[in-house]
């Protein structure tokens, strides 16, 4: 498979899962979620879906549970929407880079404020 095709499928899956989470998943446990990236294998048989979760630790845990329970539905919907013989097997992975970036930004601002007060 060409790398370009894999990248197109990854982007398609990312967009469709984002839409599904936003408009179609009715699980009340699912809070604020951002699909940050999708990494598909070269044969497109499986795809890792990286998500960033916002909220308290309890809210994140509830969202994670809701998303995990919805994986089968999401795969079936991707299968209906993608023009391939099969839908990739989806797996969820937590992407903490946004949270990490926010924490670094917070620390930088704190340092700048402390320097300004001296």
From TrEMBL:
Biological process (GO), any one: maturation of SSU-rRNA
Major localization listed first in the record, in broad terms: cytoplasm
Gene3D superfamilies named in the record: 3.30.300.20
Molecular function in Gene Ontology: ribosomal small subunit binding
Pfam families assigned to the protein according to its UniProt record, in alphabetical order: RBFA
GO CC annotation terms, alphabetical: cytosol
Keyword tags: Cytoplasm, Ribosome biogenesis
Location relative to the cell: Cytoplasm
Family, similarity comment: Belongs to the RbfA family.
Subunit structure: Monomer. Binds 30S ribosomal subunits, but not 50S ribosomal subunits or 70S ribosomes.
UniProt cross-references to NCBIfam families, sorted A to Z: rbfA
Name of this chain's protein: Ribosome-binding factor A
Organism: Sporomusa termitida
């Amino acid at each position: 498979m060409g790398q370009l095709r894999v990248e197109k499928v990854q982007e398609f899956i990312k967009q469709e899962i984002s839409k599904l989470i936003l408009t179609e998943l009715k699980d009340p446990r699912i809070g604020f979620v951002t699909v940050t990236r999708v990494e598909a294998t070269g044969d497109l048989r499986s795809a890792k879906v990286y998500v960033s979760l916002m909220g308290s630790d309890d809210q994140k845990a509830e969202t994670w549970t809701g998303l995990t329970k919805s994986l089968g539905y999401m795969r079936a919907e991707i299968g209906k929407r993608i023009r391939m013989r099969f839908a990739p097997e989806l797996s969820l992975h937590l992407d903490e880079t946004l949270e990490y970036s926010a924490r670094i930004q917070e620390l930088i601002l704190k340092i700048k404020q402390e320097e300004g007060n001296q």
